[in-house]
Design brief:
The complex is a heterodimer. By secondary structure, chain A is an alpha+beta fold. Helix content of chain A is 66%, strand content 9%. Chain A has two domains: 195 residues, Up-down Bundle (Multidrug efflux transporter AcrB transmembrane fold), CATH 1.20.1640; 73 residues, Alpha-Beta Plaits. Chain A contains ten helices and four strands. In chain A, helix 5 runs antiparallel to helix 6 and helix 6 runs antiparallel to helix 10. Helices cover 55% and strands 20% of the residues of chain B. Chain B folds into two domains: 198 residues, Up-down Bundle (Multidrug efflux transporter AcrB transmembrane fold); 227 residues, Gyrase A, domain 2 (2-Layer Sandwich). In chain B, the strands form five sheets. Chain B has a four-stranded antiparallel sheet. In chain B, strands 8-5-11-12 form a four-stranded antiparallel sheet. A three-stranded antiparallel sheet of chain B has the order 9-10-13. In chain B, helix 1 packs across helix 10 and helix 4 crosses helix 8. Chain B is rod-shaped, with a radius of gyration of 33 Å. The chains are: A alpha+beta, B alpha+beta. Chains A and B meet through strand 4, helix 5, helix 7 and helix 9 of A and strand 14, helix 9, helix 11, helix 12 and helix 13 of B.
């Protein structure tokens, strides 16, 4: 069975439109991120208290909001998990969870249980944030060095920008859809970074092979040919990974919902960026400089 | 040629055997992280005020020992207590039943001091107006009423220098006072007993305040010289409170105040939910992938599925062998690995197809396919491995778990996708004398 027989698309001819699309997505996301500020982030990154409460009887977000509102707490959010009206996530400012639990006891007696509770101080959240960023950047530098060594600096930088693009684009989608960036989202972003660079390297590998076979400097044709030759693999791999991401989205429960949501968009963007960011940047770089590629 | 195959298959079977041995029985060998089995995760930070930078690490070390004693007294199985940096202590207690109580016990400073009360109405009044005499301090006696609620808080003027501290305590246990309330009995060591005898002997008729973490628990009048080194702390405790107090006093006071900067409580039902749903979703996903690959590649699909299965087996085996812990993001790492394992197979099979189209024989196509796909597989896997290793080494908690499973999975992948699948394909082509390859 074959998906497409001898594909021959002019992928790179459409790269300018894609630059515009990517820039718009990322810029609009980042602007909104900036406007909404701390609200975008889970308590892991800004500090605060989080309660996961399950009631034995049905209630709703408005009711809970009113009850907690009776205590004078500056800002809090109540979010329902699932659709049964029994499980809720309550996000609170620092060190207010105990008062809220007291209040709930007063109103609901023993008809609820605290399934989970997190309390994170600002100093801890700062170090968590720093650590995550540090690990990510060092990982990127490692990739940059390895790819420079195996390909060339242009390719290495193209792949690194593609990773950045995918992560920023997914963050933008999260912000635009009003979802919070928390620890699980970070795990998803890391998975996406891994997938993105993997996909990019497969196309680069074919470009490298085709460049070695020819003396032609018609790079766009060579790049397009390489992308077309690896197209079946690209489609098969994105299909299989999306199968998994979608099943996690539908059957993985509430905690994995945002996680798999990120994966679905991240995998698609990771595939897209291998062509329209990673390869396109190398092409445009080559057009500007007169040097040839040495692989 | 034949011996070469025997060696290859021998190695593959050996690897499968070792992994099965490492994993069995899975409930015991595969360790679940806190997020999956429920429990508490606490990070404590030493209060740096008035502490020298140099002695910080040493203080944390001492605090860690004391916290370990307290956790042992709680009877938690497989706790993790470790120092992080110079000023932090991480405590992981899986499966704790009363998380709130445990956290309180761990974090309590438990500095016990015996201080003499200065019974002078005038001085006390002056002190209340903010004019505290030299060498004295103003603390509050908090007393509970019958319903266990703190009612009265009575100010008392105390000598700042304690007569005796909790460091001389050798034992602390729960007893009952005359009114039937639980209290905490203390036994002092020889030196402590001597000091206590002296202090009580010299100050008959005065009041001696028992101060715990800056709050006066009680301030009884010294009626006589107490020679045997025994003291009692009363304070209308509940039995539970008295027990907890006994635990912290027995394990000693923390050398400095510790603040809880991170606290996560995961109820047991939440962990179960994660496992059930996460497992179900992963299983469904895997089944779809397995069927899809067979549908697309036929016999080669079976081979890809076998290597995928082997990949997971090796991953679990190594995790069990190094006592690695599975976390929820860690399971995401496994999912990514499976994706990459399938990808390696797809790369190889697509390459074989391309080679077949150029008119090569099945054997030559297979050889060229594996050979040419190799650079793509190695480069893509190593870049991902770099990320995985960095995350494992520098990341914390869930991110670390993710990096670990991802790294192991990729190493397993390089073995299964290339070595194992090539050995099987070669064997089939040579033994079956296949003329035409269907892929």
């Amino acid at each position: 069975m074959e998906i497409i027989k001898n594909p021959n698309f002019d992928f790179l001819g459409k790269r300018k439109i894609c630059y515009v699309f990517s820039s718009l997505l990322i810029i609009s996301g980042l602007i909104l991120l900036f406007i909404k500020g701390e609200k975008n982030f889970g308590i892991d990154f800004v500090g605060g208290d989080l309660l996961n409460v399950e009631f034995t009887q049905k209630t709703d977000v408005v009711n809970l909001r009113n009850i907690i509102g009776e205590i004078k707490i500056s800002s809090f959010t109540v979010q329902e998990l699932g659709t049964e009206g029994k499980n809720f996530i309550i996000r609170l400012p620092q060190k207010t969870s105990d008062i809220v639990i007291e209040k709930l006891k007063e109103k609901f007696g023993d008809t609820f249980t605290i399934k989970g509770k997190s309390i994170i101080s600002p100093s801890m959240s700062i170090s968590l944030r720093k650590k995550a960023i540090k690990a990510f950047l060092i990982g990127l530098i490692g990739i940059l060095i390895y790819l420079t060594f195996r390909f060339e600096i242009k390719f290495a930088i193209g792949a690194t920008i593609a990773i950045f693009h995918d992560i920023l684009a997914v963050i933008s989608i999260l912000v635009l859809t009003g979802k919070q960036i928390d620890g699980m989202v970070i795990a998803a972003l890391l998975t996406i970074a891994g997938y993105s660079v993997n996909d990019t390297v497969i196309i680069y590998d074919r470009i490298r092979e085709n460049l070695r076979k020819t003396r032609s400097t018609d790079y766009i044709t060579i790049f397009n040919k390489s992308i077309n030759e690896t197209l079946t693999r690209t489609i098969l791999t994105i299909l299989t990974t999306l199968f998994v991401a979608f099943t996690i989205f539908f059957f993985g429960g509430e905690t994995l919902k945002t996680f798999s949501f990120c994966l679905i968009f991240g995998f698609i963007l990771g595939t897209y960026s291998s062509i329209y960011i990673a390869s396109s940047i190398v092409i445009d770089w080559l057009k500007r400089s007169s040097s040839k590629i040495k692989l | 040629m034949k011996t070469q195959f025997y060696v290859k298959f021998g190695i593959i079977i050996l690897v499968i055997g070792i992994c099965l041995y490492l994993i069995y029985p899975p409930e015991k060998k595969l360790k679940k992280g806190l997020d999956l089995q429920g429990g508490i995760h606490v990070v404590l930070e030493i209060e740096k005020e008035g502490v020298e930078e140099k002695s910080l690490s040493d203080l944390t070390e001492r605090a860690l020992e004391i916290i370990r004693n307290r956790v042992d007294a709680l009877g938690v199985t497989e706790p993790v207590i470790q120092k992080e940096g110079t000023d932090r202590i991480i405590v992981d207690l899986p499966g704790v039943k009363e998380p709130e109580k445990a956290i309180e016990i761990i974090g309590k400073t438990a500095l016990l001091e015996f201080k003499l009360v200065i019974d002078d109405e005038n001085l006390l009044r002056q002190a209340l107006n903010g004019n505290i005499p030299e060498g004295c301090e103003l603390l509050y006696l908090k007393e509970k009423d019958e319903r266990g609620i703190y009612r009265e808080t009575q100010p008392l003027l105390l000598k700042k220098e304690p007569e005796l501290t909790g460091k001389y305590i050798v034992d602390a246990y729960v007893g009952y006072d005359r009114t039937g309330f639980p209290d905490v009995n203390l036994v002092l060591d020889k030196e402590g007993a001597k000091i206590f005898e002296e202090v009580t002997g010299k100050n008959i008729g005065r009041r001696l305040a028992i101060v715990l973490d800056g709050v006066i628990k009680s301030a009884p009048v010294i009626k006589e010289r107490i020679p045997e080194g025994k003291a009692v702390i009363t304070g209308k405790f509940t039995l539970q409170e008295a027990r907890e107090l006994a635990i912290v006093l027995r394990s000693g006071a923390l050398p400095a105040k510790m603040n809880i900067i991170y606290q996560e409580v995961i109820g047991p039902t939440l962990g179960k939910e994660y496992i059930q749903k996460g497992f179900k979703a992963s299983l469904y996903g895997a089944i779809i992938v397995v069927i899809f690959i067979i549908f697309y590649y036929l016999y080669f699909g079976l081979l890809a599925d076998f290597t995928l299965f082997l990949n997971i087996l090796i991953l679990l085996g190594i995790m069990a062998g190094i006592k690695g812990v599975f976390t929820l993001p860690g399971i995401a790492g496994i999912a990514l690995t499976c994706g990459m394992a399938v990808d390696a197979n797809i790369l190889i099979f697509e390459r074989i197809r391309e080679e077949l189209k150029t008119g090569k024989s099945p054997k030559a196509s297979v050889d060229a396919g594996y050979h040419r796909a190799w650079t793509a597989i190695i480069d893509s896997n190593i870049t991902t491995l770099i990320t995985g290793l960095v995350l494992f080494m520098l990341g914390e908690g869930p991110i670390k778990g993710f990096g670990l499973t991802l790294s192991i999975g990729i190493i397993a992948n390089l073995f299964t996708a290339v070595y194992v699948s090539k050995a099987i394909v070669d064997w089939i082509i040579i033994n079956r004398k296949i003329e035409k390859l269907r892929i």
